[in-house]
Design goal:
There is one protein chain. Helices cover 47% and strands 11% of the residues. It is globular. The protein has a 3-stranded antiparallel β-sheet with strand order 1-3-2. The chain has a single domain, classed as Orthogonal Bundle (Multidrug-efflux Transporter Regulator, Chain: A, Domain 2), CATH 1.10.1660. The termini are far apart. 10% of the residues are buried. The protein is mainly alpha-helical and 87 residues long.
Length: 87
Amino acid sequence: MANAVQQMLREVMDIRQASEYLGISGDTLYRYASEGFIPAFKLGNRWRFKRSLLDSWMVEKSGTRASHEDAGVTVMPKQKKPVRRVR
């Protein structure tokens, strides 16, 4: 139980943790990160996601920015959803 609470409080997440947090597949999240659609950074050769940046990104995408503008949260500029490449 304590381990589950620690996992919920982590600020920096890996692909698996972030995909569970966002409710999307790891493959989709990897594609979004590599195409710059979602806020992420690489630590070595692995993608990492800051919970606070994901929360800000979700607020921006949901259209409810006003409540977070007063809190000083910086949100990334709006980007289009990546288009799947034809193989």
